[in-house]
Amino acid sequence: MRILKIWLVSLLTSLCSFVVPAQAADYTQGVSVDGTTATLWFQSSVNTSWVDAHYQVNGGGQQNVRMNAAGAAGRFEHRVTVKAGDSLGYFFTYNNGNPAYDTPRFTHTVGQGSTPPPPDGGTGAMSVQLVNGTNGQHADSQIYWAIIGYHPVTRVLSYVDRSGRLVPASVGDNDAPNRLVKNGQNYANYFYRLSEAGTVPLPQIDSGRMFISIGTPMYIKINQAGDGRLGFAGPDLGNPTDPNQDVYFEWVEFTLDRYGYHGNTTRVDQFGFPLRTRLIGRDGYDRTLGETASRAQIFANFEAQMPAEFRPLVSRPWRIVAPGKGPFGPGRAQSRYFDGYVDQVWRHYSQQDLVFTAEAGTFRGRVIGNDFVFSKDGGPANLYIRGKPTTQAILEGSGNLATGNPQELVVQAQITAAFNRHLLMSVDPARWSDAAAYYPQGPANYYAKFWHDHSIDGLAYGFCYDDVRGHSSLQEHPNPQKLIVTVGW
């Protein structure tokens, strides 16, 4: 999705397809320390051309970087500044040909060495409670939930049963006695009714999704790759024959690990019905995010407040779809929506520099030829957006806005957010963190703006890089006690 600081989701998300677990035989890894420099290293024994490191120092914010190829074929490294006693938590994502794989999580304490990944919580690291907030429109017996994700140690695709156990998934689940059947196809059934189980202990789980539906369970197929690894096919709103097209559904995406809970609701793909998530910590932390209006009011507000180009995103009675899933998709009526703005931006910044500061540093860019070329912190101009982005690339953070090394990805995320929020040429980059300056005029992603206007504290995931400068619905806490998910209508 993306994005849980890519704790997921990825997610993303919605935004995302799940990365499958790694085979231990594919690689060796470790941490080498020299003074105040720790080198994360990864040695591949398969067809690997890139490796991403995801790491935290002392449980702080997760960093996601593309590692540098180093020396021997298949070896990749990344250096981190540390001191004695620091704890590094980390895992890797790598390719073996086309597929991408996640390793388990590892830890290394500077001066003590590495430890294996933590075990799952078993009896529950926290609890999740589902609340019927439909105001009598739907009985508890009509509300369904399922939790699917990856075991944090084995990386096996699993589901959470109503007692809170993490149970390995199987292709055979598609044909189990309790299977779901639609249009002659069989689907795994990991769903429970709210009337059967309203609160469940939640063990540690990676790349988790809590799917919620009303009226019927969702139709999810368990698939097996050629190497035997499992994944699942969730709802695909871009496929008109997807069995979930006529199902009311939502989801919460999250990871629960030794560093706590990291999760969010998402509007990156669609709105099915209102959701609120209340995260409670054992230290008294208590925060709620999401929507408070009724479903009918949200539909009415969307149709009344949206510019004409965005009104067809309403797909009654089922949902409001994201622009890229509707008329802004390739070859459709609004497929060139941002093109004129992109042309203006490219002309403008061929004559003057764009300078902005983000968490990763200060970037200076200028359009040279057809490419937007950036430098970081006064260094060489070697960070690229190659060519003009399409409307779809802007709305979905894809194509040439999601390509390259880690520093290029930082630039591309910032520029994607600036296009969606119509900041380029219109708003001084010094105000790019100020939500009051967003969406001053069109073209802009008014779909995303709507969710910020109609969400608690103005926080929402309206597009995949809505976490840029901290405006997404991400909730995190290092010592969570409970997540309360309220289903609205």
UniProtKB/TrEMBL annotation:
The protein's name in its UniProt record: Endo-1,4-beta-xylanase
Keyword Hydrolase on entry: yes
Domain annotation CBM56: ranges: 21-110
Taxonomy, superkingdom: Bacteria
CDD domains tied to this protein: GH64-like (cd09214)
GO molecular function: carbohydrate binding; hydrolase activity, acting on glycosyl bonds
Organism ancestry: Bacteria, Pseudomonadati, Pseudomonadota, Betaproteobacteria, Burkholderiales
Pfam families listed in its UniProt record: CBM_56, Glyco_hydro_64
GO biological process: xylan catabolic process
InterPro entries: CBM56 (IPR047569), Glyco_hydro_64 (IPR032477), Glyco_hydro_64_fam (IPR037398), Glyco_hydro_64_N_2 (IPR042517), Osmotin/thaumatin-like_sf (IPR037176)
PANTHER family the record matches: GLUCANASE B, PTHR38165
Stretches assigned to the GH64 domain: 123-489
Keywords in alphabetical order: Carbohydrate metabolism, Glycosidase, Hydrolase, Polysaccharide degradation, Signal, Xylan degradation
Signal peptide annotation: 1-24
